[in-house]
Specification:
Layout lengths: L6 E2 L5 E2 L4 H16 L9 E2 L21 H8 L3 E2 L30 H6 L16 E3 L3 E3 L4 E3 L28 E3 H13 L4 E3 L2 E3 L5 H13 L8 H14 L1 H5 L2
Antiparallel strand pairs: 1-2, 3-4, 5-6, 6-7, 7-8, 9-10
Helix pairs in contact: 1-4, 5-6
Length: 252
């Protein structure tokens, strides 16, 4: 399916063009910035070989129902390897990246496990994610380089809707639509300012738990953040904090 570049009413009428290089750059820049903090390891940021990830092919990914452009994008994206956590790294609140270069997407693709990672797994067929849209952690619309939150909740729906015959009308039952680069820049600034702090598989802020958030801020600043930062020492201190706060991390 081909989608024309139409003015986007959710983005002040801007006409957006699909730019795969901008998507790759936005993701790699974000992952690299997070690796400077005592959480994501740079060694877990993986980049494709020259020909792209060998498992991401039209044949292997056929059960996912994605078009050629989506597959070509996924084939050349950087990914975050899961270091052994139940869900992997949290890169925002309750947001975990999907690594299409690893299991269950390795050849042969595990269809059931792959579908279990998709946010539309319980939706009716007409509500499924479109063939030109791919979930990275949110729903990534590859024709415009935007992200739309997959939040089928009336309270999360933006005020601006698309016309019924607009190919982007699937977004009407979802959350807000943002430019990927702008969204990741906003998230990066929250982490770098310590407004957000990642610990284990959780992202903390003051609103979630002011006391825990303040303790984590203090630990990171005591280790020199942002200048003269003793990252490895800080990471050890945060791991010790995690051990003392298991109920907060995994409790209901």
């Amino acid at each position: 399916m081909s989608t024309p570049n139409l003015p986007d009413p959710r983005l002040d009428g801007r006409v957006l063009a699909y730019d795969p290089e901008a998507i790759k750059t936005a993701l790699s820049t974000y992952y690299y910035a997070l690796s400077k903090l005592p959480y994501i390891e740079a060694s877990n940021i993986v980049f494709p070989p020259a020909g792209g990830w060998p498992n991401i092919t039209a044949t292997n990914f056929a059960p996912l129902g994605k078009n050629e452009t989506v597959i070509a994008l996924l084939k050349h994206l950087p990914y975050l390897r899961n270091p052994g956590l139940p869900k992997g790294y949290a890169i925002a609140f309750e947001t975990f990246p999907i690594d299409y270069s690893a299991a269950p997407f390795t050849e042969p693709l595990d269809v059931d496990a792959a579908e279990g990672l998709s946010p539309d797994q319980y939706e009716d067929e007409e509500e499924k994610i479109k063939s030109w849209v791919v979930p990275l952690t949110m729903s990534q619309d590859q024709y415009s380089g935007t992200v739309t939150e997959w939040a089928h909740n009336d309270s999360m729906e933006p005020e601006v809707d698309y016309e019924d015959n607009d190919p982007r009308a699937w977004r009407n039952v979802c959350g807000e639509t943002r430019l990927l680069g702008e969204l990741l820049t906003e998230w990066r600034e929250k982490f770098e300012s310590l407004d957000w702090i990642a610990s284990s598989e959780k992202v903390w802020d003051e609103e979630m738990n002011a006391e825990n958030h303040a303790q984590l801020q203090r630990i990171i600043r005591e280790h020199g953040w942002p200048h003269g930062f003793r990252r490895e020492e800080c990471k050890e201190a945060l791991l010790a904090w995690d051990e003392e706060h298991q109920d907060d991390l995994y409790g209901a």
